[in-house]
């Protein structure tokens, strides 16, 4: 198995990317890690070259670049070259911690959409209170979605949960403003009816965003605008609550300060949980395209590589190609 | 000033409603509190009848009732009677902790929409880390909104923030999937352009839901579907984080347990903050219609009554009627 890696993408590239590869290649011994980027810089952090190929590239996409234009204007960038490797069949999947927009555009234009998938989507596995986690999509690849898009997201998410996360008959739910089937925008109500009629999906109905962290569903489907807003609300609230706790303890009585010092390690582990989701998969394409967080550490890159490995190993993209080809739309 | 109160609506009615009136009437001495409901039950909790009128009603709306049908089928319910009092000019505003759907329907059908307001919206003042708070709308009165609806929400929210909360030139922001003006659904992009061209609104551009709790804006505008999802995500995340902290402390080492006991009072005050927003105002109607949370305690009812008092006192609804009448749409 070959995984193409954009070694120059992300806030701490290539250091954290290469260090993540150092960690992952100890476990994933059947993988060839193709590192696209500046050879000299990559070698500085690489422990050894076993199962590693370094492919020299001369350009780097930064966050000021127009994400659509770079596909043509920066053809020798580490990101575009890594995605191109998948297109050419030289790699089975691609990982980048670089520009989300550029990766989505490159994925769509080079790896290409699965036939009959109306829209690809961005999906992450988010943590739940019971530790089981859930997959949520679309997190912002789209800004407007029809009922048919939502139905396709449900299929993409269910295949991922079953094949990559090993969940039998994953429970699929649809974000709405109430649990009753009468609730929702016209697109959500129509998607509800379509999903209810499908036998291949374990559709459990509508879910409110209040309940997703409780583990009430394995796959949570939303339009890209709403999904993006929900994800960022969860992030902002977690970060806000931790800041409040910190300042409450800091400005509190001596008793509170001592208590704060004693619970601090436990609270720190909670904060880790919030960021442990790994990469965001761009699903609905013919091969796995995964985005790691821009500020990923080495362990997060390794975690994203484990995820990519599972996606290739389970052939989830191939199974989705078959599913959609055999559908009578 | 006369405030009509649905004494029978809510999980702990009439007890908490009447106890809230007991608290509020000590401060708001120029208000007549009209309590609609079961006279005997109301009198059980009422401290004294000064500035209070009790209006006997025979029906109560419960959460199984169809919210649209009850306006006609339960005309003698405490909720419908209280809203009708505003319609007839017997009261200046109405407060209920009962069914949101029934209150929205009764407000729309009886109090009526301000002329030229395309859609009314549900708005709450939510807490920020700096204690200043922000107003967010629409929280779910609508499930789909056009650019014009969003523009009207911005005007409604800005008038409220300025007149009721006393904020000069409130900063108004639009929820989108990125801060840049190029981001958003077609409706959001169009609303962005319309708001940018308006001189009477201090429009500061797009905001991501991640940043709203930081106090980056005084008024946050979203379509009802997204606003509802954001509000419920914040609620669910807050409640989830507190549950996690509780179980981490409970299952932690002795050191963590002792620390937990010491910080518990400080953490409890944080939790209060999460629920201190008061009532949700149904804005865009000709008079104030406010919904208190179903499980409100006496202090929350008193807080909602202070809010209703300020809305009537500042004549925010009258000012909005004038604003929209004088607009050239």
What does this structure look like?
Two copies of one chain form a homodimer. Chain A is built from eleven helices and eleven strands. An eleven-stranded mixed β-sheet of chain A has the order 3-2-1-4-11-10-5-6-9-7-8, sandwiched between helices. In chain A, α7 links the parallel β7 (171-175) and β8 (202-207). By secondary structure, chain A is of the alpha/beta class. In chain A, α8 (224-250) runs antiparallel to α9 (254-274). Chain A has helices spanning 15-27, 39-45, 70-73, 78-87, 100-111, 147-163, 186-196, 224-250, 254-274, 298-313, 316-325, and strands at residues 2-6, 32-37, 52-56, 93-96, 121-126, 134-137, 171-175, 202-207, 219-221, 280-283, 289-291. The mean pLDDT of chain A is 92. The first copy, chain A, folds into two domains: 1-117 and 284-317, Isopropylmalate Dehydrogenase, CATH 3.40.718.10; 121-276, Isopropylmalate Dehydrogenase. At the A-B interface, α8 and α9 of A face α8 and α9 of B.
Query: What is the succession of H and E elements of chain A?
Result: EHEHEHHEHEEHEHEEHHEEHH
Oligomer: homodimer
CA(first)-CA(last) distance of chain A: 33 Å
Walk across the major sheet of chain A and give the strand order: 3-2-1-4-11-10-5-6-9-7-8
- Residues in helices of chain A, as a percent range: 40-55%
Structural class of chain A: alpha/beta
Average of pLDDT of chain A: 92
Pfam families (chains A, B): FA_synthesis (PF02504)
Keywords (chains A, B): Acyltransferase, Cytoplasm, Lipid biosynthesis, Lipid metabolism, Phospholipid biosynthesis, Phospholipid metabolism, Transferase
Subcellular location (chains A, B): Cytoplasm
Organism (chains A, B): Lactococcus taiwanensis
